[in-house]
Specification:
Length: about 220
Amino acid sequence: MKNIISKIARLMVGYFLYGLGIVLTVNANQGLAPWSVFHQGLSLQLNITMGVATQVVGIVILVFDFIFGERLGWGTIGNVIFIGTFIDMFMLNNWIPIPNNIAVSYGMMVVGMAVMALATYSYLSAQLGAGPRDGLMIAMTKRINLSIGLIRNLIEVVVLVAGFFMGGSVGLGTLVMAILFGRFIQLTFKLFKFDVRQVKHRYIDQDFALIFNRLKNGKSE
């Protein structure tokens, strides 16, 4: 019981920090990361909040992950629900100021990337499933004979271009985040001695199988 509470706490801290990190990069106002460009563009086209746009995209990707046979964890579902919720919480309440100084803007962007990197470590270390976008990347890698890094880059180029034409914010900061965010994640994992290759996620189908077996055994008794 204590273990599952700890895992849920890691997830929620991760979602909270990821939402905070995204809003820091948005309010830095120097251009967004590729997925954020897409979410912002979609929010403008559909007249919805950026948090809701993030959730809508997450749900669509979740469906594709399921169709492609990728296993889903409770953390995957939580990723779709809570990150968008926290984005709207910060943005609608204007809790993060928009700086006028360009140096402060880029400083805010760097802090945002660091916060998102820490958030990534927090929710992945809970071992309850990665985010839906990671699942899509893995699913496509299994079906296309290209490296996972190239697949990720191709996906991000597509969402970046689509987001730009929908009105999403693209600037020098977009290039900065595309280049540096992965480095921030690597550094964070190194600081916490976290090897993502050793992570063994617990998936929803495992929990359902466990419940089914317990019910079956209970009836047989």
